[in-house]
């Protein structure tokens, strides 16, 4: 949906604080926690659709990055019933959207520890600048949209994009419902009236990209490497197969341009409700019924969400200020798909976007848009035009070579704007300092970009 930044290896902990409790993200300082890094989340969830009741057991395996006499997890709206650290019951208190935990003895710097939290309640989305975000309700099921701060609405976590971990997610619910979660379905076991769905997510993943979807869906599968699957209301399957029918070719084209697809599979869920915009998750995208019309009317969004698997999901921003690295790239992927699939060239789309930007207020710096403008349309459009300007400066050969190196060098890692601009400069003898200063750091929209004379083309 989404100052020099934190480096790809930086720890958000505040050095010297034995109980660091907040991240160093200036945009969302109350989300994320210092003092440790999570390695793995193991989630067992039992959900009753009718009353909307959730029973959860989260096992969080982490490594302390400093000595800790206390620490916090992000957790909102649910009630912890038991908390242990390394198997021993501990003091804990929930204040606001933080679960404060005090182990019986301080955790040593560099030591691994395991936090078990059992909890119950009726999940509710978290209020934010961008509306209600998190675990939410359909007429007959569940939709989870965690970006950027919704994950604590359904499990205790370190809710910051730079702290990527692996996951196991098991969901037990009534058997008539299908569960789709981020990751690969490892097993599905039914007993009496319920079914347990067990998923594994082995690639490092930030909390905001973890999702669970519950509903009455028809299952579709297509493609083999990677396997592509979908969960769709039965009445929409015919139109879905037409509207999303070019997705396998889209994945092939993006793999050619961006490098190998970074996950084992790709899934799509179409919920039986209208959504303002699709929802991105790791190896999964969620669309509304309004995005299926039988005329491929939302195909640009299909391209946008697929592109996020490279830009945003495999390569994740180290801090939210770098959001253009997610949205600008995904928006430019829409134009690239148009270009290779018989639609308008990226140049045409860039001209249209530039004209639209020229009519908007000139009060946002792309590389640091501020919390208010985190998901502003200008981040998407100006980010894409910036990439087009870079493409014209480098030439097609160097530009697409840069994209492949970018995705391979930082595969399943975290990235900053400085990481990208430094790498881009290595792909051309032309100086890029002025281009990036004007497009990334100045609020004033530059003139429409022109191709550099002599730049190579494909």
Q: What's the domain count? A: 2
The proportion of residues in beta strands is 25-35%
CATH superfamily of the largest domain: Neutral Protease Domain 2
* Fraction of residues in helix: 10-25%
Indicate the CATH architecture of the largest domain: Orthogonal Bundle
Could you give the distance between the termini?
A: 32 Å
Number of separate helices = 9
Instruction: Report the CATH C-level class of the largest domain.
Output: Mainly Alpha
> Could you tell me the mean pLDDT?
93
Unreliable stretches covering 5 or more consecutive residues: 1-18
Structural summary, described in words:
The protein is an alpha+beta fold. It has 2 domains: 1-211, tricorn interacting facor f3 domain (Immunoglobulin-like, Sandwich); 217-458, Orthogonal Bundle (Neutral Protease, domain 2). The protein contains 9 helices and 23 strands. Strands 5-4-8-2-1-12-15-14 form an 8-stranded mixed β-sheet, with no helix packed on it. A hairpin with a 2-residue loop joins strand 10 and strand 11. Helix 2 (247-258) crosses helix 3 (299-307) and helix 4 (324-340) crosses helix 6 (377-394). The longest helix is centred in the C-terminal third of the chain and has 18 residues, at 377-394.
